[in-house]
Amino acid sequence: TFEELGGAATHATRSGVAHFSSPDDDACLEDARYLLSFLPQNNLDSPPYAEPSDPRDREDAELDSIVPDNPNKPYDIKAVIERVVDDGQFLEVHERFAENIVCGFARLGGHSVGIVGNQPRSLAG
């Protein structure tokens, strides 16, 4: 099929050429706006600040139980990321490709950050 030869799903899951994929044009524009919200307008500008709705000094007891004491046991690093970043929002790059690596954008204290890490839940990270 045309999809197997090089459609969006193929490039988002198998070849890794597409960093993002969206179900339709409107969603694609919304996704692009969200991605750009993390980036500065140019090389001289700072990334935009976004006031978080959750308190900076918040504590989450779940963090103590997500990462197991045994380093050989898998866990979901995305669950850790979502509990640490502002408002639990994480924009993952290559979400459906190379599932043993997690890479994306989030905010900490309103400031844009890039996150790269292993995903122990898939192929032991």
Question: What does this molecule look like?
Answer:
This protein is of the alpha+beta class. It has a domain at 37-118: 2-enoyl-CoA Hydratase, Chain A, domain 1 (Alpha-Beta Complex). It has five helices and three strands; from the N terminus they run H-H-H-H-H-E-E-E. It has helices at residues 2-6, 8-15, 25-36, 63-66, 77-84, and strands at 90-93, 101-108, 111-118. Strands 1-2-3 form a three-stranded antiparallel beta sheet, with helices on one face. The mean pLDDT is 90.
Compact overview of the structure:
This protein is an alpha+beta fold and 125 residues long. It has five helices and three strands. β2 and β3 (111-118) form a beta hairpin.
Average residue pLDDT: 90
User: How much strand?
Assistant: 15-25%
User: Outline, from the CA principal axes?
Assistant: flat
Could you name the CATH class of the domain at 37-118?
Alpha Beta
Strand segment count: 3
Keywords:
5 helices; alpha+beta; 2-enoyl-CoA Hydratase, Chain A, domain 1; single chain; three-stranded antiparallel beta sheet; flat
Fold topology:
Blueprint: H1 2-6, H2 8-15, H3 25-36, H4 63-66, H5 77-84, E1 90-93, E2 101-108, E3 111-118
Antiparallel strand pairs: 1-2, 2-3
